[in-house]
Structure formats: C-alpha cells, structure tokens
Amino acid sequence: MTVGIDKLAFYTPGLALDMVELAKARGDEPDKYTIGIGQSVQSVVPNYEDVVTMGVNAAKKILTAADIEAIEMLIFATESGVDNSKSAAVFAQKLLNLSPYIRTIEMKQACYAGTYGLMQAKDYVRLHPDKKVLVIAADIARYGLKTAGEVTQGAGAIAIVVSADPAIAAIEDDSVYMSQDVPDFWRPVASTTALVDGHLSTDIYKEMFLTLWSRYTAKTKLALADFAGFAFHLPYTKMGKKALDQILDQATPEQQKFLQEQLAASQVYNRQVGNLYTGSVYLALLSLLQQGQIIAGQRLAVFSYGSGAEAELFSLKIQENFQSAIVGQDVVTMLADRRLLSVSEYEDVFNSQLFDYQVDATTAGPKNTDRCQFVGWQNGHRRYQMS
C-alpha cells in the first residue's frame, strides 16, 4: 500500500522586509545578505499572528469536508509553541472544525519535528488506510533586532494531509536518521529569542548530511543519479548548497548541472520568506515541485535537520497526478501581495508582540480577511477568531 503526501499547503503573514533595506540600516553590504546568506526578503509576523493562526490558515487552503471527516489525528510540529502545557494542535482542532474524536498533539525538536510528525502520520495511515492525518509545521524564527541572526528570521506554516494512495508523493520506507547532543542552537524557557552558534550549526548540518548520505546509499544501493532533486532544510538558502556541494563529485557534469538547477528551484520560496524552522524543508519541497523540472515517477531526496541536533534523510516517489494536486497553491501571488515594511516599521512590529499573559490586551488585526487571527489575552487565556 502506498502512503504519503496527499495535499500540501503554505501560508505566511502579509508583511515582509527587504533584505537590502535591512543591510543598509545595519551598515552591512547588501551582498552579504542576498548572496552570502542567500536571502532576498523575510516575512514579518504582526502581533495578531502566531503559529496557531499560521497553521490554521495553511490548512484551510486544502481541507475539504471529506478530509475533515477522515482525519483521525492532528500533529502540530513547532518550536514556537504558544503554551508550555496546552498543545497548539488543540487550538487548531477547534478553529478548523475538526472532530472532537481525534488525537491532537504538539511535537518539538528544533527544525526536525515536522519530519517526525510526517513519519508518525505515515505509520498511522498504514495501519488505518481509511483514515487521514493532518500534519502542521509552523514556526517563527526570531533572533532579535541588530543581532547576527536577524537576517535569517522569518515565519510561516506548512500543512500536509497524509493518506493512502496520495496524490502528490509516496513516502518511501528508506529513512536513515541520527541524533547527538550539540550546543549549536537553543532557546531557554524564559527567552523569546533564540541563541545560536552559527558556524557550529553549519558544520553539524553538513556533517550529518554527509554521514546520512553515506548510510543511505549503503542501505538502499541508490546513487546520486537516481534522484531528480533534493529538498533541504533551508534556514537560509545558501545552506542547501553547502550540503549538496559535498556529494556533487559523485555525479557526471551533466547531472551536476541539473541538480544545481533543481536546487535553485527548491530555494525560490525560502529566499522570499526566510526561516520557518520545522516547515522549511517542506516549503523547499513545494518550491521544487512548482518551480523545478519534476515529472511523475521520479525520486526526490529530503534532508531534514533540527539543531541540537537531529537529522533524517529519506526519499519521495512523485505520483502521477501531482501537478493537479499542487496547482491551487499560488505561492508566488501570496508572496507578491505582502506589504513591504520600512526598517522602522519592521522594528515596531517586532516589538509589538503580546507575550505577557498577565495583562489583558487586544491586537488590531485587519477585518474581513477570512483568516484566523490571534485577538489577544483575556484573563490569561489566548483568544482566537476567524476575522
């Protein structure tokens, strides 16, 4: 039985910041951001958005009445949770009008948790082929104003419906994975911003990819020529290139050129959004499917990495009608419709977040948008509504 990604959707807030303008404001050369890091624009999160609203807004794009009836489980992967006890999945369940008779759970392991959720969903559907699982991967990458990590901020959510006989891609049973305790990235409980050792994180990412690629090829007997492209976790787009460059010498010059073109296709959306942590690798996948040279029957590699650190490498087999299943995802238009902020406006938005639950407060989100919004705190409770 084939199990995999039946539907795939992306959402990001409607505000954005141009990296050239940020570089100028911070006294840096724009090429350091746009070429050295590989980012052009980053999404900015207003205080009426959070991981719950983004996840719900992504899922709303693809869920039908039939999906809602068949969904037996909601897995919400995030490292930007809104509560230390209550799952973001519980909020999303109600806002999406899902059945109360399903399992709802939140998962965390830096940028890797979405992949763990996807694998759990695959295993569940294999045992219950008439059921579906909704996996949401939503995060806000937040490092602070005028910090080294500021250029790699971003936000967004991916929603994935996992089912039998999927329309987009089958998840192959070929995963290899590893974990080790590494102090490359973390966020203390009391902090609203992350701490990172950027050089160490890059080194561990590259090492884990190379190790897992070696284990994967030994296990599956597949070679680089068997793949039509890679979807990498992209905290910034240059990271995928650093990983792929390590194994390109295993391909012919013609294959190398093709894989580099496919890598560029997978980076298109992430370059315009920034880091969305656990959803990043699946935004790269969506970008590759829409912007790359993909045909049914091909195999794609997926490399998922989460600092701290954990990684997994596996493959997807593209299905016959995948194009019709993703054609409704007009990501290009959504990104183009965002309002570009000045640097001072961005700083005001960054500082406007409502983190203090002890103070009743109301956000000022736009009206009549048909989107889920966080409307503020009341008596210590988070309040949401569909505007």
From TrEMBL:
Signal peptide: none annotated. Residues 2-164 form the Hydroxymethylglutaryl-coenzyme A synthase N-terminal domain. It is an enzyme of class 2 (transferase). InterPro entries: HMG_CoA_synt_C_dom, HMG_CoA_synth_N, HMG_CoA_synthase_prok, Thiolase-like. It holds the Pfam family HMG_CoA_synt_N. Its EC number is 2.3.3.10. Gene3D superfamilies: 3.40.47.10. Keywords: Acyltransferase, Transferase. NCBIfam families: HMG-CoA-S_prok. Belongs to the thiolase-like superfamily. HMG-CoA synthase family. This is Hydroxymethylglutaryl-CoA synthase. It comes from Fructobacillus americanaquae.
